Each structure stands twice: as C-alpha cells, then as structure tokens.
Amino acid sequence: MDPRNPNDLSICGTLHSVDQYLNIKLTDISVTDPEKYPHMLSVKNCFIRGSVVHYVQLPADEVDTQLLQDAARKEASQQKQ
Amino acid sequence: MSFLKSFPPPGSAWTEAVLKGKGLGTGTLCTAESRLSWLDGSGLGFSLEYPTISLHEVSRDLNAYPREHLHVMVNAKFGEESKESVAEEEEDSDDDVEPIAEFRFVPSDKSALEAMFTAMCECQALHPDPEDEDSDDYDGEEYDVEAHAEGQATLERLEGMLSQSVSSQYNMAGVRTEDSIRDYEDGMEVDTTPTVAGQFEDADVDH
Q: What is its main location (chain A) (predicted)?
C-alpha cells in the first residue's frame, strides 16, 4: 500500500496494522520520492499518523470492490439496528 | 497530570538529537503522554506535540544514516541559528507547502529503540485530531491485518453476506409479482419476459 502524506511524500510498504484513527503501521517501506527525500527508509516498522495521510493507494488486484461495497452496505445497515 | 515515561538509555548513555543533519548535542528523550521532549545536560531542550508528528520509525539502514536511530517527521518549523541554513530552507520549500522538520534521536544504546518507537505509537493514539468525531463506530482496538484468525472469520462472515445478497436477487427475480416489479424500479437488471403465461392479457391495447 502507498499512503501519501502531505508535502508529497509517498511511502510504499506492507500494511501491518491500522487503528480507529487510521494511524497506519507499515513494514518494509520504501520512499517513492527519492529526489525530495534522498534517504531510503528501509525500516522494519513505520508509524504514520492518520491525520496526515491524504491518500492510500492499494494495489487494484488485491481489492475486491464489489465485496467491499456490499459488505459496507450490510455493516452500515446492521449498525443502525 | 501526564504520566511520564522517560527513556534514558541504561547506564550513562544518552540520546543525541539531530535536526536537519545538525547535531544538537546529547541529552535525554522523554516520551511523555502529553508531548515528546528532549533535554540536553544543561537544561536546554525542546518539545514536540504529538499532533504535529506525522511519522516516526526506527531507522536501521546504515546506508541512510550511520547509526540506528528514531526518525521523526514533524509538521512544524524550527528556526535555524545560522543564516545559511535558513536560506537553504527557503530555497527548497514552497510557500504553500507545510513546513516539515526531520529529527533523529540517536540513542547510544540502540536496544532502547523498540521501546521508544512503541511508546511513541501509544502516545500518538492518545492525541487524535479533534475533527475526527465520527470515527467511533470501531471498538478502538488496533486491527492487525496479520492476525489471520480474526481476519479470516471476518472475511468469511462478509463473504457469506455477499452470497446471501446475490442469491436473493435471483430468487426475487424469478417470482413475477406486483411487489417484485416495484422493488426493481431502481434499475437493476431483471428478466422482463413474463414468466406467467397470460400475465398481461388484461392490459389495455391502446395505451
């Protein structure tokens, strides 16, 4: 996944966990804008504050949007009960 | 009333703070619940508010930096003492871009790094943005995507819901009643040929 921070910092990595504030922990990360941030952050664990994330880009072939839509609809209707 | 968790490395070791590649000296890094602060031996220091900390990580890549450290990115401006570095900063940054500062906290005992990282994660969770008020439909626990058992159970439940939803479409579409016709006025694809012979025989011819 690729959470894009403000200041155009893009970080690519494997999603480890996420909490209710959408704070994200990534592992095996790499920086996709090496010109702006010349060091590669090849670290084990990176914690990103949810409020600074502008976009999260997921690989399309790993997301079943139909399942997501129906599941979200069902969950929302269940929560209203 | 903040609960202080201070992380001075064991023994006589200290944590060096580095801002923009410039060492600020060695001191003590304090991961308090209220804020992150660093103090050098003479009482000088600074503190960082968690909402301004956009990212933190343990950097073990010695090619990026020669020593393992806690890397912290902050959405704030920190004044440089020398005029040269201020000019350098203005050249690189646009006016519209938020200021961002990178700190490196280099403990002389690198075994403290995991604890420092974890403490900061916990403290970050204590300082969510006040705007996010509609996010309390979750029980607050961190969702670990690697916890396969729970994830699998959730996935199976959701897939079950999906298959129910799909099968109910076909069941209803096979029964051509007045009610089912109304239900599908939202444009879902339905077989329009009458399944009951003579269903429309009583319709007016000239309408």
A: nucleus
Mean pLDDT of B156-173: 60
Return all residues near A18 (Cβ < 8 A) that are at least 6 apart. A24, A25, A50, B142, B143, B145
Q: What is the pTM of this model?
A: 0.62
Q: Cα–chain-centroid distance for residue A50?
A: 9
Q: In degrees rounded to 5, what are phi and psi of residue B130? A: -65, -20
Whether B92 has a pLDDT exceeding 60, the answer reads no
DSSP result, B41-105: TTS-EEEE-GGGEEEEEEE--TTTSSS-EEEEEESS----SSHHHHHHHHHHS-SSSPP-EEEEE
Separation of alpha carbons A23 and B126, rounded Å: 11
Q: Which range has the worst mean pLDDT, A50-64, B10-24, B124-138, B179-193?
A: B179-193
**What sign does the dihedral A21-A62-A25-A34 (CA atoms) show?**
negative
Mutating which of B50, B57, B110, B155 best tests the A interface, going by the most A Cβ atoms within 10 A? B57
CB contact under 8 A, B161 and A39: no
Mean pLDDT rounded to a whole number for chain B: 72
Chain A residues within 8 A of B168 when measuring between CB atoms = none
Of all residues in chain B, the one with the smallest CA distance to A52 is B54
Range B66-93 average pLDDT? 68
Q: Assign B70 a pLDDT band (cuts: 50, 70, 90).
A: very high
Q: How confident is the model over A34-53, as a mean pLDDT?
A: 74
Cβ-Cβ contacts under 8 Å, B131 against chain A: 51
